[in-house]
């Protein structure tokens, strides 16, 4: 029984400092701890790196030296190649089991790429293919013709900034031979999503990241018809989106398809206000330029904990019937300016400022993060933040309108105050005062 407990405990432990301590307990713990350390060790190898020569020498010495009977301490190799033309690098890469591979295919040796992929079909877990410039990648000549399957490939990223369809066909061939759980597509081609994200791949996905310059009507319709069985994390971003009724309808349909199991959601597109669109398991959402906070109600988002909202203009949210989700504990705001001052200048007291869906409506907030472009003013310290009843921590950027006494008097009760630009030379004197008056302040 003690041996079984040791195997279960140390076999699943991946905290390196704790593993090193556990190895000192006894011989059996040392053996099990060593196996776990070997499993979580990672070696980064880049083509053209000056360290590659020294590392290959180290491996050779181990293979021929007195420790040759011991298993290698290196199991997880992360390999990055720009060309696959260095003979030393290619020879080394063909003799190891690669788990992570990054290929920059701007000027790559296609034949070697296929050989590396084929030789690591049972060990490759993460694969990233990146293209920045058009090249002469001959797909027909160097295609993956062998009936191979990437049995362990769980993470596939395709970052393509050129207009060559050859690359897309190459990645489509890889996708037909694996079942990734995390798929990342960053492309200029507005139709590529349709051929790369097929129904059989959608069913297996847990995480999906789509970033495109434009997306065609046909691609949006294709996405709207997909069924996802286990997708929990989604990032969807379109640089130039045409807000036509048909496109918005397909986008809403896609949101409905992914909403049942989604836990993390980030998008720069408008979220539909349709009553039937509910995210029962969503915990975190990041939205851009969406000012209707009243949409985040417990009925639509029963599990919501974090809202990250980015505004391009002033925060000016009119009162609506619904109350923002009271279960949200973390809020991040990235906007350019506060609008409290403009109301006070018009003669209104803080209590008479027209109701907005503000941070004070999220009564369960514990952490608030203000982005780099948010200009924190003294009025926020005096009238807004102290009104958040359960606030424990804020993160913000200091500016010349703030002072240490102000921070101490109105926010000194918080557990943690993180000033992100505390090391800025312009605020050295102010930060010295903050350190003396506000001991619960920290550098971001």
Task: Name some characteristics of this structure.
444 residues, alpha/beta, 16-stranded parallel β-sheet, 18% strand, globular
What does it look like?
By secondary structure, the chain is of the alpha/beta class. Among the domains are: 1-40; 287-444, Leucine-rich repeat, LRR (right-handed beta-alpha superhelix) (Alpha-Beta Horseshoe). 31% of the residues lie in helices and 18% in strands. The chain has 15 helices and 16 strands. It has helices at 2-12, 16-22, 27-40, 51-64, 87-93, 110-119, 165-175, 192-196, 199-202, 217-224, 245-258, 340-345, 378-384, 404-411, 428-437; strands spanning 42-46, 76-81, 98-104, 126-131, 155-160, 182-187, 207-212, 233-238, 264-267, 284-288, 306-310, 330-334, 367-370, 393-396, 416-419, 441-443. The protein is globular, with a radius of gyration of 27 Å. The two termini are 47 Å apart. The relative contact order is 0.04.
């Amino acid at each position: 029984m003690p041996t079984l407990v040791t195997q279960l405990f140390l076999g699943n432990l991946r905290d390196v400092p704790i593993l090193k301590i556990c190895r000192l307990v006894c011989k059996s713990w040392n053996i099990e701890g060593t196996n776990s350390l070997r499993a979580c060790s990672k070696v980064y190898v880049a083509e053209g790196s000056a360290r590659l020569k020294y590392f290959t020498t180290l491996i050779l010495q181990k293979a021929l030296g007195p420790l040759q009977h011991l298993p290698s301490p290196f199991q997880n190799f992360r390999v990055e190649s720009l060309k696959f033309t260095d003979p030393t690098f290619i020879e080394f890469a063909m003799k190891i089991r690669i788990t992570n591979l990054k290929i920059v295919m701007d000027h790559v040796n296609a034949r070697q790429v296929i050989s590396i992929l084929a030789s690591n079909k049972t060990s490759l877990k993460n694969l990233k293919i990146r293209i920045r410039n058009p090249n002469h990648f001959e797909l027909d000549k160097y295609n993956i013709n062998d009936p191979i399957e990437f049995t362990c490939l769980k993470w596939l990223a395709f970052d393509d900034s050129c207009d060559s369809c050859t690359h897309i066909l190459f990645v489509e061939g890889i996708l037909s031979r694996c079942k990734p759980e995390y798929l990342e597509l960053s492309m200029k081609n507005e139709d590529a999503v349709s051929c790369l994200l097929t129904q059989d791949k959608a069913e297996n996905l847990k995480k999906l990241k789509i970033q495109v310059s434009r997306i065609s009507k046909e691609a949006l319709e294709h996405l709207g018809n997909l069924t996802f069985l286990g997708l929990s994390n989604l990032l969807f971003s379109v640089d130039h989106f045409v807000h036509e009724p048909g496109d918005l309808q397909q986008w809403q349909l896609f949101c409905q398809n992914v909403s049942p199991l989604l836990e993390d959601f980030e998008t720069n597109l408008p979220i539909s206000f349709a009553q039937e669109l509910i995210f029962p398991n969503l915990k975190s959402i990041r939205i851009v330029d969406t000012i209707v906070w009243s949409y985040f109600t417990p009925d639509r988002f029963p599990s919501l904990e974090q809202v990250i909202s980015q505004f391009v203009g002033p925060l000016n949210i009119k009162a609506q019937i619904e109350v923002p989700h009271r279960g949200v504990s973390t809020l991040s705001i990235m906007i350019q300016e506060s609008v409290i001052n403009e109301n006070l200048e018009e003669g209104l007291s803080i209590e008479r400022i027209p109701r907005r869906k503000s941070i004070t409506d999220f009564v369960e907030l514990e952490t608030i993060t203000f982005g780099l472009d948010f200009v924190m003013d003294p009025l926020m310290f005096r009238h807004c933040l102290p009104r958040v009843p359960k606030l424990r921590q804020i993160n913000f950027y200091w500016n010349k309108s703030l002072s240490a006494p102000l921070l101490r008097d109105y926010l000194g009760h918080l557990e943690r105050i993180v000033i992100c630009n505390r090391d800025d030379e312009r605020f050295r004197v102010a930060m010295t005062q903050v350190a003396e008056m506000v001991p619960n302040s920290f550098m971001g």
